[in-house]
Design goal:
Elements (H helix, E strand, L loop, with lengths): L1 E5 L2 E4 L4 E8 L7 E7 L6 E6 L6 E3 L7 E6 L4 E6 L8 E8 L9 E2 L3 E6 L1
Parallel strand pairs: 2-11
Antiparallel strand pairs: 1-3, 3-8, 4-5, 4-9, 5-6, 7-8, 9-10, 9-11
Length: about 120
C-alpha cells in the first residue's frame, strides 16, 4: 500500500489544521492506521492510531482533547484534525498503515507533511 499525506502548513498558535492520508494500491480497510510526528532533533513519536473499523482509537496522552483521528474507508483516507495548535506541535507528520495490528512495528509509511506553528 502507498500512502500520500497532505494538509500540512504554517499556522499561528491556536489555529487548526486537518491532515489527510490517502492510500492507494490496496484498500485501507485492510490496515490499522496511525499518525506519527518527528520534530527537529527528536525521535519520531506516536500521535494517534485507529483500527480498521474505526471503533478503537488511541492518542498520545498529551494530545487528547486537541487532536482527533478518523478514517473513511470508502475514500481510502485517514484524517488527523488538529485544534488549538501549539508551537511544540511543530514537526513533520507521517501517516502509517499496518496490517499486523496496532503496534506499528513495521508499517508502511507516507512521505510526511510539515506542520509549523508560530507563536
Amino acid at each position: 500500500v502507498q500512502l500520500q499525506a497532505s494538509g500540512g502548513g504554517q499556522v499561528q498558535a491556536g489555529g487548526s489544521l486537518r491532515l489527510s492520508c490517502v492510500a492507494s494500491g490496496r484498500a485501507l480497510s485492510g490496515y490499522e492506521a496511525g499518525w506519527f510526528r518527528q520534530a527537529p532533533g527528536k525521535e519520531r513519536e506516536f500521535v494517534a492510531a485507529i483500527n480498521r473499523s474505526g471503533n478503537t482509537i488511541y492518542y498520545l496522552d498529551s494530545l487528547k482533547g486537541r487532536f482527533a483521528i478518523s478514517r473513511d474507508n470508502a475514500k481510502n483516507t485517514v484524517y488527523l484534525q488538529m485544534n488549538n495548535l501549539k508551537p511544540e506541535d511543530t514537526a513533520v507528520y507521517y501517516c502509517a498503515a499496518d496490517g499486523n495490528g496496532m503496534g506499528f512495528e513495521n508499517p508502511y509509511w507516507g512521505q510526511g507533511t510539515q506542520v509549523t506553528v508560530s507563536s
